[in-house]
Design goal:
The structure is a homodimer of 530-residue chains. By secondary structure, chain A is of the alpha+beta class. The first copy, chain A, folds into 3 domains: 100 residues, Uridine Diphospho-n-acetylenolpyruvylglucosamine Reductase, domain 2 (2-Layer Sandwich), CATH 3.30.43; 117 residues, Uridine Diphospho-n-acetylenolpyruvylglucosamine Reductase, domain 3 (2-Layer Sandwich); 203 residues, FAD-linked oxidase, cap domain/gating helix (Vanillyl-alcohol Oxidase, Chain A, domain 3, 3-Layer(aba) Sandwich), CATH 3.40.462.40. Helix content of chain A is 33%, strand content 20%. Chain A is built from 15 helices and 18 strands. Chain A has a 7-stranded antiparallel sheet, with helices on both faces. At the A-B interface, β9, α7, β11, α10 and β18 of A face β9, α7, β11, α10 and β18 of B. Chains A, B: Belongs to the FAD-binding oxidoreductase/transferase type 4 family. Chains A, B: Its cofactor is FAD. Chains A, B: This is Alkyldihydroxyacetonephosphate synthase. Chains A, B: Keywords: FAD, Flavoprotein. Chains A, B: One of its GO terms (molecular function) is alkylglycerone-phosphate synthase activity.
Chain lengths: 530, 530
């Protein structure tokens, strides 16, 4: 039986943080912001949330794959951002989908799209529902909405053990990919925080960023070819290791966020499961000393798998909030060769920038799961579960991410940090916190991932949350960054994306969409307006 | 004073192969194909070629930047493929451009495009004119044509020494980039055979492949942002090290081959000039033993700068044509660290596949210029000069390139080789030769670069040449490959490209073009029809 997802928050209905996780976290937050206790809104039960009646009648031929029951519609109404949790706790879901389709194959998708066309309904492609940018949220303006969940299209169809690639369906969740590859020597290793509850098709549609901090950062780099079902028909690109024949068709769909069609399958690159690992945690006196080291490592052509620079106070337990220290979680991995030469040189570079390495025992198979690296890893994996508990307590806890070339990073970091801090203070009347990490790094710049926190007024929780997040995200674009490095645009980022992307490109994209989706039914409001 | 290009062939008017190069080459060809002597057509003089009178009157305001003289129009009529040389030797140039514009800035480009619009002329963007796919050749169907040469927009405008990037104008030639970077620690190192007479804008428009055999293979990987002048206006993408905000605007122009607009400048990634090098030549008993080694090296994550697998008889002097031997030109380079560990492991892998290494002295600064690597390098650089001399003698000597995933490579190689050999025999009535090399290699497959030769009937030289090249190129697409890995589509590859790319993508691209180029004036006939 399919494991039931938690309709109002991250994860599955049968799992939650333990009291042993909640209590020290509450204490830490209370101390950080000078709070004595929390008013905890109870988690919603599904029958506490009233939904508008469905505005669609499911044709008899589709009833076996389309559902309109309360819980199904509720579960597909929101993504998993902080503002989604807050609204669920407010029992406020004004725009649920009218129906949710669960196609089992491309023919089913075509039938559902035909129905949407005839019924005048909008179609929202749905993978794991982990969007944090309102990417799968029905817009208020839509008269009728059918959400199309790909969850039954969840198979690894073919593994090419010579070229190290696999043909995989779009609706498969991250862990199922690795499960289905278990009998092979291969792994995809595209892990991100949403890995457990997000899909290959979703990753491709949103240009997700994964485990690798260098080289294979975005899903873009994994894709050999795609199949897409559009309202104008199905399309398949040719499977190739490389091509220079015109603008890449794959790149038109990478990042298309469901506005052009539904990604049903892809050939993706795999690699052999790593058997050699070298990991280290390196402490720097502050974030910018660490940033200089990271820049030098990426420009040296060493290509670590992991190269995440974190503020110690954000990432590690027991570090006082006043600490300026930074920690670099550095790892090389290979299925082919020992990594001493790589790690030795990377640590020399760290040393040149004042980094003190805490190298783990090279014989320790689980080095990446212990020490600072392990502590960070645990926090990273568990973090999404805290969102509902923060929302329930009026705790502001969210993130935004961007990218910037190195020469502008210090000034940009200073400005964005100041804006975030000032905005929290202005909106909430209290001091908040803001920290930064680098999640992915390139020779010419990092992805800056900001985490911010504070205490909201629960009576105006949603309004305050949105004002802070909107102000900070807008600032990243105003100061030259991208509105998103790997969280997608969705409906939330639209105003900032509209400033970032050239208007002539928007016109070209709109024209391309009109060709593939003549009635503008696919994921309306995302990326462009018709 | 600007050095005059040779109007009818590769290179500059004041340079040619020496008798010391021509004689042994002639002897080798004569021996290979059993020929006793060659009938040599003399190189054309410009006044031997009659051109249709220009069909345009240049407005007085543009006369300082637009030329209609005979030599200028002649020089911009053809690219540098074998069929271009043959036609020049035939003194046959039926469709020259009516005028050639030499804008000095974007405002000039806008003025020229406005003139084209008013005069009902087509506009063909022109970089170095090194196209081998009829990418810059005016189509017979065009009523009036203005070729727009970017050669005056040839500056490195800005160097960012922190992020290792530069803002560079589109019309700059390869060597000028490195010249203008000479006072910096940086290099672009995007070398290809056409490097001396091709431009940054041309590389971007055609998705060229360069020096690096792995990772930074295509120009795509160098581009941070672009400026493009389209008939609908100018557009600039945001300079970023990475982004996930919608489909990449840069990727729409990468490979657009002038049909959407003119690339006037780009921010591109640089790297420090390499100070550490490790090179080796590795001999394999045959091409497929070498291919297995190359596959293992790319899948091992070692990322050599050079990893070119060649048939020894094609690449090296003194190897009998009956030899099946292959040679791998392998090199690592770095500005940061010694490369022993990398090379040691790569050579171990070669050894596992029967490769016998001929490692050069690691202290030899010029290792990559001596031995098999050096012999290959010289042939590679000089090769384009042979094209006119082959054409003058009725020698068939040309190439085509494609890419394929590894698991299909042996069968694909066998089929394409057989088709090429059979086609030469059928068309010319004589045995020809065909060899293959890998120029760029990916974990999931190589770029296969085929070279073929034979003896043509000079009375039907062009017809025979076209039939052979067309048949072989068509076969690459029929058997699952790409019509081009890095030579672009142009007008020559159109029939094969039309089969390769999904029809729905063509419709989307046409729609995008209509938005940026409403009258369809930009490089008509390339990639798509209106």
């Amino acid at each position: 039986m399919r494991r039931q997802k938690k309709f109002y928050a991250w994860g599955y209905a049968d799992e939650d943080l333990s009291a042993d996780e909640i209590k020290p976290w509450e204490a830490e937050i209370a101390q950080r912001y000078g709070i004595s206790s929390f008013d905890v809104t109870p988690a919603p039960k599904s029958d506490e949330i009233a939904l508008r009646a469905t505005r669609l009648t499911v044709p008899s031929g589709l009833q076996s794959i389309v559902r309109t029951d309360h819980l199904t519609r509720l579960e597909h109404s929101y993504g998993k951002a902080g503002f989604d949790a807050i609204r669920m706790l407010m029992r406020s879901v004004p725009n649920p989908p009218d129906a949710v389709a669960f196609p089992e194959n491309e023919q089913d998708i075509v039938r559902v799209l035909d129905w949407c066309d005839q019924a005048g309904a909008m179609a929202i492609p749905y993978g794991g529902g982990s969007s944090v940018v309102k990417g799968i949220e029905p817009p208020a303006s839509a008269e009728k909405v059918v959400t199309i969940s790909l969850r039954h299209m969840d198979k690894v169809l073919e593994v090419d053990s010579v070229s190290h690639a696999a043909r995989i369906q779009g609706g498969i969740y991250g862990p199922a990919i690795e499960d289905q590859l278990r009998q092979t020597p291969f792994t995809m290793r595209h892990y991100m925080q949403a890995y457990r509850c997000s899909t290959l098709g979703g990753w491709i549609a949103t240009r997700s960023g994964g485990h690798y901090a260098t080289l294979y950062t975005h899903i873009d780099d994994f894709v050999e070819s795609l199949r897409v079902v559009t309202p104008s028909g199905a399309l398949e690109t040719r499977r190739l290791p490389g091509s220079g024949a015109g603008p890449s068709p794959d790149r038109m769909f990478l990042g298309s966020e469901g506005i052009l069609g539904i990604i049903t399958e892809a050939w993706v690159r795999l690699r052999k499961k790593p058997t050699f690992r070298a990991s280290a945690s390196v402490r720097f006196k502050n974030f910018f000393a660490g940033a200089d080291a990271v820049r030098a490592i990426t420009q040296a052509g060493l290509y670590p798998a992991n190269c995440r620079l974190l503020e110690a106070r954000e990432a590690l337990p027991g570090i006082p909030w006043s600490s300026e220290e930074a920690v670099l979680v550095l790892a090389f991995e290979s299925a082919d060769h020992p990594l001493e030469a790589w790690m030795k040189r990377a640590l020399e570079i760290c040393g040149d920038h004042g980094g003190a390495a805490d190298p783990t025992d090279p014989d320790d198979e689980n080095a990446h799961r212990s020490g600072a690296a392990g502590a960070w890893r645990n926090r990273f994996i568990r973090a999404p579960h805290y969102s509902e508990h923060a929302a329930a307590r009026g705790i502001l806890s969210s993130t935004f991410e961007t990218a910037m070339t190195w020469e502008r990073v210090p000034e940009f970091h200073r400005k964005i940090t100041a804006i975030t801090r000032d905005t929290i203070k202005r909106v909430t009347g209290r001091d908040g916190t803001v920290t930064c990490r680098f999640t992915h790094v390139y020779p010419d710049g990092p992805c800056l991932y900001f985490t911010f926190g504070g205490i909201l007024d629960k009576r105006r929780q949603l309004e305050q949350f949105m004002e802070i997040l909107t102000t900070c995200t807008a600032a990243t674009v105003e100061h030259g960054g991208t509105t998103t490095h790997h969280h997608a645009v969705g409906r939330f980022h639209r105003p900032f994306y509209d400033k970032q992307r050239p208007e002539l490109f928007a016109r070209a994209l709109r024209a391309a969409k009109r060709e593939l989706d003549p009635k503008g039914m696919m994921n309306p409001g995302v990326l462009i307006d018709p």
